[in-house]
Design goal:
This is 4Fe-4S binding domain-containing protein. The chain is mostly helical. The chain is built from 20 helices and two strands.
Amino acid sequence: MSSPTLSAAPTTPVSPAEKLTLTVIGLGLLALLPATFDADPWRAQLFFYVALGLVSAGTLVWAARTFGRRPAGVQQDNLWQRSSTGRGAVAWLTALVLTGFYVILYWFSSPDEHGNFGVLNNLVHALDPLSQVLRNRPADQWFLYGTFYTLAVLVMGGRALWKYRHSPYQRIRTVSVMFFQLGFAWLLPGLLLALQKPEYYFSYFWPLKYDYLFPGTVSYLLQDGGPGLGVFLIFWGVVMSFVGTPILTYFFGKRWYCSWVCGCGGLAETAGDPYRHLSDKSRGAWRWEVRLIYPILVLIVLVTALLWLGAAGVLPAWFTTARPSQFSLVTNLSPVDGLGKIYGFFIGSIFSGVIGVGFYPLLGNRVWCRFGCPMAAYLGLLQKHFSRFRISTNGAQCISCGNCSNVCEMGIDVKQYAQRGEPIIRASCVGCGMCSTACPRGVLNLENGPREGRYQASPLIHADSLRILS
């Protein structure tokens, strides 16, 4: 007698129109090869813009046809059966390409004396006309990255708008991250450079943008920004880090930043949306989260404090001034400067970029936000202990479908809270609201209510229990 087997859930057949749009996207990706390696600059530039146009148009048309024809609602069917979203061969290939791009960008694209950017040279110089218009200077590898990043948020944001068109909260939140990435993280920094002012990203704050409050950066802003703009940029960074962040988090939780403003969160919520179900919900993953994210926050606070103590003359000069490396792990750097460089290499580059984005298809879209981001740790502590924000639950209405846990990108087993009628007050919660959007019964609600009773379970679950007992 043969053992019973579970039959696979039926998959939706791919229509000819969908196949056509996917073919267009594939041709766009293929066009990146001659754009990267063609020796003729004009042809390389032509292939580059053709590639961007095909990928962008194909993705938006695919999203309109795929999600526009479905009934409204969050549908996560068959995600684990697809090679692209179920850690299959396509997912591994995607992770390899993303990781390889970040490795090349960070460590193999610095220009030589002739302005050659290595493997990325054609792609960088293809953006020279756009860079001249926006920044009044030729493109570099970071302008290429910023353009790719912004385009990914905008195009995949369009996909998210189609997918979650039934939810006003998700529509507004998606438009918000698209706006801040385009305006505050791409256009404004470029315009500042065009005006011969310091490049500054207004949507990033310390400790995420950790060097913004380093003494060297403050001196640079004052020198290149002048007494007016330079002082304003420093004031903006300090006030948003130590005044604006606590106040906004008190009223709205960490969602005001992690899900509405931050570029890292913006990429995760748009380009990373297909992978949100991959987040590990196990207790072991939560333990690693605590072991990693809070020590990283402590480390950057320590480095920043030591640098300022050195600048104030409190610490010995050798401790904070560049000198021979007898005291340091990094050549010609003092211990504190060396520690800052090590932090930038392992946390700012490898963790946030190579792993944080490259591993989207394998570990989910919030690996960096969940395990490594010091800003998320800072906001999470404020949210858990001082904020009015919570996700209330009505356990009497929960049918244990698990949709909420499946879509939680931060690895929270939301269903367990919903079944007990307990409010969700977790430091890791970014308030994306997907659990509430995916719930078919309206069990979950994002609230900024009074702190009184914030940790109490819903009275409805207790009333229901009393009825059962009687």
